[in-house]
Design a protein that fits this description.
The chain has about 325 residues and is mainly alpha-helical. The protein has helices at about 15-20, 55-60, 60-70, 95-105, 115-130, 135-145, 150-160, 165-175, 185-190, 190-215, 240-255, 265-270, 280-295, 300-315, and strands spanning about 5, 40-45, 50-55, 90. It has two domains: about 5-145, 2-Layer Sandwich (Potassium Channel Kv1.1, Chain A), CATH 3.30.710; about 200-300, no CATH class. It has a four-stranded mixed sheet. Strand 2 (about 40-45) and strand 3 (about 50-55) form a beta hairpin. Helix 10 (about 190-215) packs antiparallel against helix 14 (about 300-315). The chain is rod-shaped and about 100 Å long. Residues about 1-15 and about 25-35 have low confidence and may be disordered. It comes from Gymnopus androsaceus JB14.
Length: about 325
Amino acid sequence: MLPHLLPAHYGTADQINALVKAKNVNWEAMNPRFFQSPEEVLLRAENKLFRVNLALFLKLAKGFAGLMKGLVNLPCANFDQLGTEVEPIYIPVKARELEVYIDWMKLPNWDRHAFTESQLLDVFYVGSLLISQPATDWVLEELEKRQLTSARKLGIALQFGIYRWVEPAVNDLFSRPAFMYTEEEREGMGYQAVSILSIAQLRLLTERVRRSTIPPPVNLGFGAVECRYHGGEHDKSHCARVWDTLWFLEIGKKLCHPVNPMPFAEVVGFVQGLAFEGVTPQCRDMGIDNLNVAFGDIDSSVRNSVIAKMVALLPMSAYSS
């Protein structure tokens, strides 16, 4: 048994004294300062008691220290017994979570640790609850040293409110089709994240299909004023047919490429490099100007909407903004 872990007892002081006597332990009857060192107190989580150094605990857990400071002025507060086996200080976490947090408290700065990912997250959870920024900062540094997948980092970010992990994870995940995510990745990031990414990718795919199969009209189908086909029949003219054909053959197939589709942000630059022989130069220039307005960077716009939705899901924390 670890030195800071004790079996838990319940009941009044009289009941505990009776229990101690029944076990023939050479302890005197319970008294307000039952420990030899007044700096030590007992914490309780679930059915286990933990012995900790009070000064160190208050130094690291600012939220708990603030709570204790506020309790001092309460007339009903019984500080003579608080933190003893009669009335251990209750911490509303699981025993394993508090135990690993205390293990972290006792870890010298120069020692290597053997905490698992799950234990690191337990330290982060308890540290967040107690407003122990040294603990949460340390956990994030340790996790960032590990080769966590983008899906796992996104899942942790959404669980604990870690803003700085969201955008890099989304950028990486958004670059791959959602149907290619492994089961481990889907479980790692969670249902909501998978759903948001999938819907955004479907929206982007729909936009690609629509824009690759419907060539943007030049001047609402009338063509440039300088074009000899200018007028209501321009969309049936040789100028418009060449524009439409080149759009299907050169731009459309690149927008809908199944493996490596052209980003929307590159479309205008690509179109500017095409000859468009047979298209009136003024119609070509007007068409490109329209593309600048109609296309923009649709990929980034959709991706940024995904990031915004993920950020909206973050719980409030010291790292959520």
